[in-house]
Amino acid sequence: MSTAVWPPIPEDERKKREDESLARELSWLLDSLQETLASLKSGLDDCYALLAPIEPGNTLVMSSPRSESIKGHVTRVGSRVVKGQLTLRLKTYSPVQLSISPTKPLILPELTQLRNLLNQSLDCIDITRWTGDRTSADFIDGQLRLLHGIILEALGVLKGPALLSPTEPPPSSTAPIPPPTSFHFQPWFENPPDPESFDPPLPGDLSLDLHLSESSLVLTARVLEIAQREQNLGERLAYAIGAQRRLEHDEMDDVFLFRGEEVRVKEKVRVVGGADPSFLSLGAKLGALELIVKGSRVALGVVTGRELEDD
């Protein structure tokens, strides 16, 4: 089966009518994208509200499920952890109970960056709708690409760094690739929390790191020792006869510069807290908005004859 114009028209006249039809379709699409942008703005406003510092905040359980190493809870309000109680029963450290000081809350830089990215995306939409040339396909395509990149980066920050233990296999080549992000996830030793944020103040040989990963808060406790410390006779004898063994973890052979001193990690315990409902909702909303933006870029590319470039 074939299609043809009847009665036949000259080739130049047919080409002219095709161009006119394509121009009308492009004009309609650019007008409809203004409605799409308004819908995206509403969705991003909802995402921004999920990170607002609204009391009483979200209280999350921070307890290791199969041991008594870490037990407790923390309360997050916006990008700060304002209170909490933690009990640590580590193998190489005396039991300790800590409270998070309400006067010096812990700041989560990932959430601060998320708020900045959401602000950037809202500004991008406002510029696209009210400042630039809404009839220019090139301008709209560039703005949609910029918006898509910002949302992908926000999803990458929400996902957080990969958490693989030495016993876990690396992801296969067929596993989905996480969204890219230019956000610098600071290592635990670069910008440790203020010891005064805990009550009693955190000892110098104990490190607590709290960060975001997979829409949950992850707490990592580390027992530290001076890198150049010599083992005493009892320790050497215990290691020699097998009565005592080093606790194996992924950082056991590394040396870190922590608060001006070279240290080793003697023991490391990580616990993934309960999923934060605000983070789960935020991830779902951002994922849906990313699909809308990508679909808009594809539609515009089809009409203008451009292929969607990989970001």
Describe the structure.
By secondary structure, the protein is α+β, with helices and mostly antiparallel strands. The chain has a domain at 17-161 and 192-202 and 276-304. It has five helices and ten strands; from the N terminus they run αβββββααβββαββα. The protein has helices at 11-50, 109-131, 137-159, 233-241, 277-304; strands at residues 58-61, 70-77, 80-88, 96-100, 106-107, 198-199, 206-213, 216-226, 256-258, 261-272. Strands 1, 2, 3, 4, 5 and 6 form a six-stranded antiparallel β-sheet that branches. It has a four-stranded antiparallel β-sheet with strand order 7-8-10-9. Helix 1 (11-50) runs antiparallel to helix 2 and helix 2 packs antiparallel against helix 3. The model is unreliable at 164-180 (pLDDT under 50).
Number of helices: 5
Indicate the percent of residues in helices: 25-40%
Question: Shape, please?
Answer: elongated
Secondary-structure element string: HEEEEEHHEEEHEEH
Major sheet description? 6 strands, antiparallel
Give the N-terminus to C-terminus distance in angstroms. 40 Å
Determine the strand fraction and express it as a percent band: 15-25%
Structural class: alpha+beta
| Low-confidence parts | 164-180
Quaternary organisation of the protein chains: single chain
Rg from Cα: 27 Å
Strand segment count:
10
Average pLDDT: 83
Sum this structure up briefly.
With 311 residues, this protein is of the alpha+beta class.
Summarize the SSE layout with pairings:
Layout: H1 11-50, E1 58-61, E2 70-77, E3 80-88, E4 96-100, E5 106-107, H2 109-131, H3 137-159, E6 198-199, E7 206-213, E8 216-226, H4 233-241, E9 256-258, E10 261-272, H5 277-304
Antiparallel strand pairs: 1-2, 2-3, 3-4, 3-5, 4-6, 7-8, 8-10, 9-10
Helix pairs in contact: 1-2, 1-5, 2-3, 3-5
Organism: Oidiodendron maius (strain Zn)
Protein name: RAVE subunit 2/Rogdi
InterPro entries: RAVE2/Rogdi
